[in-house]
Amino acid sequence: MSEKRKQEIQRIKELESINLARDEIRDLVIDTKKEVEKDNDLLAAQINDELNKRGIKSIDIVGAIGAGKTAILEKITEKLSKKYRILVICGDITTRVDADRIEKHNAETVQINTGRECALNAYHINQVIKNKDLFDFDLIFVENVGNLICPSDFKLGTDKRITVVSITEGEWVIEKHPMLFKMSDIAVINKIDLLERLGTNIDKMIKDACGFNPDIKVITTSAKTGENIDTLIEALEL
Ligand SMILES: Nc1nc2c(ncn2[C@@H]2O[C@H](COP(=O)(O)OP(=O)(O)O)[C@@H](O)[C@H]2O)c(=O)[nH]1
Ligand SMILES: [Mg+2]
């Protein structure tokens, strides 16, 4: 990530913290948040080293509830399981619905229930990889808790991050969530099978994503019809 983008992200984070506490303790709150993040980032880097050492590719998927993260993973794992041994780690506050769905498509799954936490963090992922025999896998996917805000605070140690939005969320959804797009390698705009009905301005969505992050690859998909799922798989550069 470029220095300029890192600085932009830091500025947004400090802006968020301004309304967090009374004047006297505000600096302390901002510093504590920075420390928590630094600690998480350190562990994420260790996780990434460990996975790389073992030749395991890893990708995490973030996005709002209902954008189609699980549906996309169902399609991807179905195709890739012919070639790779896949582990999918699913984050959800209470259920294992997503893990059960994905398991039907030839991938092993682990469900993490976060309780009230709105995002997975590196400690969750570390817990899983410590307790798994990593020699059993070539590829790890992580589906984060459905949320477009909190996951931007926590790197997970994966090689790539995909952010998924869908056209049912409206053409402003990317414009309103700069952070995740700045931090992602791939932006997926899903549910394009519904375009005719909804008339969502996809060109604006693509322009917004590229405006936040000139390096991002934007791919429009339908997890329902399978359109462009192969293009997404290519973009994973496995
Ligand atoms: N029409 C249409 N529906 C989709 C598509 N992708 C997902 N869905 C539906 O949207 C709902 C939410 O999908 P899900 O994969 O659970 O989203 P997640 O919460 O992001 O994991 C489900 O009813 C899916 O069947 C798509 O590309 N087109
Ligand atoms: Mg899901």
CATH names the topology as Rossmann fold
Ions, cofactors and other ligands present here are:
guanosine-5'-diphosphate, magnesium ion
Annotation field: number of helices: 9
Question: Major sheet: size, sense and barrel closure?
Answer: 7 strands, parallel
Taking all Cα atoms into account, the compactness measure Rg is: 18 Å
Distance between the termini: 20 Å
If classified by CATH, what would the architecture be?
3-Layer(aba) Sandwich
Topology:
Layout lengths: L2 H15 L5 H31 L3 E7 L5 H12 L5 E7 L4 H7 L4 E6 L8 H9 L8 E5 L16 E7 L11 H5 L3 E5 L4 H4 L3 H11 L4 E4 L8 H7 L3
Parallel strand pairs: 1-4, 1-5, 2-3, 2-4, 5-6, 6-7
Helix pairs in contact: 2-5, 3-4
Bound molecules: guanosine-5'-diphosphate and magnesium ion.
What does this structure look like?
The structure is a single chain. The protein is α/β, with parallel strands linked by helices. It has a single domain, classed as P-loop containing nucleotide triphosphate hydrolases (Rossmann fold, 3-Layer(aba) Sandwich). The protein has nine helices and seven strands, in the order ααβαβαβαββαβααβα. The chain has helices spanning 3-17, 23-53, 69-80, 97-103, 122-130, 178-182, 195-198, 202-212, 229-235, and strands at 57-63, 86-92, 108-113, 139-143, 160-166, 186-190, 217-220. A seven-stranded parallel sheet has the order 3-2-4-1-5-6-7, with helices on both faces. α2 runs parallel beside α5 (122-130). The two termini are 20 Å apart. The model has no long low-confidence stretch (mean pLDDT 94). It binds guanosine-5'-diphosphate (GDP) and magnesium ion (MG). Guanosine-5'-diphosphate is lined by residues 63, 65-71, 98, 146, 190-191, 193-194, 222-224.
